[in-house]
């Protein structure tokens, strides 16, 4: 019985919330929504040189995002020579694969990319709780029913997807110029997947 | 009313700009291009690539240099807006991505082999293989426009047609790869030099 209690205690500590582990201080805020502005301009074609590392394989190409309307984004990845690798649409809560090459047409991979890209393009996310950590404001959200923390100093610098109190995916927005992130880094901690994007236009 | 007449007039001019070649004209063009391709030992050219996606406001423009040495070495070297080179040599694809080097063995990959042959043939203009493509030739002023539609079903899922524009001498001036969705990649060649001495060092990755 004693073992059972201590096991529960350990489990409880292990599953302690991400915000507590990180020592975030609860903050009261009137903000109900956090904005991700990096793919919000309908007039702009967002074009990035992309490097993707999956396990030991390296891929590169051109990563293109276009906002086509309210909550409506198109995401296309091509090789440098222009051959399309995939072409996805996000419209409100729907996701559509317009095209994908046969070699990578795997549900598990599409699902990972869908979740990652949703976090990139979702502009307005309802805030569940607000915290502060030194000079950073941290907002807890439930993007796609998954816990995401949004980190904002002057601008939105980072998004972290968390599961069972652990960081699963980190999105870093770097070299920010107004509402353009000239560099974006996505890294997964449970699988060997890294996506680096560098703006080329 | 007058505007409508003008519009109709210009539309008919536009429609007439491109006329289908007769069988004899197509055969002449094919013979000219084949003869021309046969004489190419080396080729050096600048290129500008336009990636057209219908939903974008502007085409994505990249540019660089193309080097070819007979029989089967081709290097596409992008210079702006990023440095990236892809070299097809001895059934291997060598990639240099801003200094990061990698290679892919294409010997066992039928699709890549086809792509390699196609790239070499399209650079030379010699794609007139009726077993592989449905071929349609058009005249457009002094230029000729030829559409090569892949017969292979697997291939045609990716490329609906290659369109090659030849100048009056039978040189390739433009290559367009049209996808089933009508999005396309257009490559325009300029400063083309043929049969100059090209060192093998250019083809070392």
UniProtKB/TrEMBL annotation, chain A:
This is DUF4292 domain-containing protein.
From TrEMBL, chain B:
Residues 1-17 form the signal peptide. InterPro entries: LolA/LolB/LppX, OM_lipoprot_carrier_LolA-like. The keyword Signal applies. Keywords: Lipoprotein, Signal. The keyword Glycoprotein does not apply. It comes from the Bacteria. Gene3D superfamilies: Lipoprotein localisation LolA/LolB/LppX. This is Outer membrane lipoprotein carrier protein LolA.
């Amino acid at each position: 019985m004693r073992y059972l209690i201590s096991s529960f205690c350990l489990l409880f500590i292990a599953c302690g919330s991400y915000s507590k582990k990180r020592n975030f201080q609860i903050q009261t805020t009137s903000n109900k929504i956090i904005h991700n502005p990096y793919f919000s301009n309908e007039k702009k074609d967002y074009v990035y040189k992309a490097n993707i590392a999956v396990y030991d394989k390296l891929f590169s190409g051109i990563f293109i995002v276009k906002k086509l309307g309210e909550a409506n984004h198109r995401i296309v990845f091509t090789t440098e020579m222009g051959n399309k690798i995939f072409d996805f649409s996000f419209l409100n809560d729907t996701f559509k694969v317009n095209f994908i090459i046969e070699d990578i047409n795997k549900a598990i991979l599409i699902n990972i990319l869908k979740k990652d890209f949703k976090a990139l393009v979702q502009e307005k996310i309802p805030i569940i709780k607000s915290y502060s950590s030194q000079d950073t404001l941290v907002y807890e959200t439930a993007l796609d029913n998954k816990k995401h923390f949004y980190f904002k100093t002057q601008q939105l610098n980072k998004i972290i997807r968390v599961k069972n109190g652990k960081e699963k995916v980190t999105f870093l927005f770097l070299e920010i110029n107004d509402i353009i992130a000239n560099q974006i880094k996505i890294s997964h901690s449970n699988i060997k997947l890294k996506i680096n994007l560098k703006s080329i236009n | 009313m007058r505007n409508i007449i003008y519009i109709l007039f210009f539309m008919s001019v536009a429609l007439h700009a491109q006329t289908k070649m007769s069988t004899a004209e197509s055969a002449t063009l094919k013979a000219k291009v084949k003869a021309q391709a046969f004489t190419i030992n080396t080729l050096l050219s600048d290129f500008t690539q336009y990636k057209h996606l219908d939903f974008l406001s502007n085409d994505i423009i990249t540019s660089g240099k193309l080097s070819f040495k007979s029989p089967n070495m081709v290097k596409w070297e992008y210079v702006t807006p990023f440095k990236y080179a892809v070299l097809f040599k001895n059934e291997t694809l060598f990639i240099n991505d801003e200094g990061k080097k990698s290679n892919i063995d294409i010997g066992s990959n039928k699709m890549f082999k086809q792509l390699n042959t196609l790239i070499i043939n399209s650079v030379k203009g010699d794609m007139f293989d009726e077993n592989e493509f449905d071929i349609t030739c058009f005249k457009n002023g002094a230029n000729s426009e030829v559409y090569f539609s892949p017969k292979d079903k697997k291939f045609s899922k990716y490329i609906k047609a290659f369109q090659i524009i030849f100048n009056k001498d039978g040189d390739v001036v433009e290559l367009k790869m049209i996808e089933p969705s009508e999005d396309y990649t257009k490559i325009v060649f300029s400063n083309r030099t043929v049969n100059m001495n090209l060192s093998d060092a250019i083809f070392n990755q």
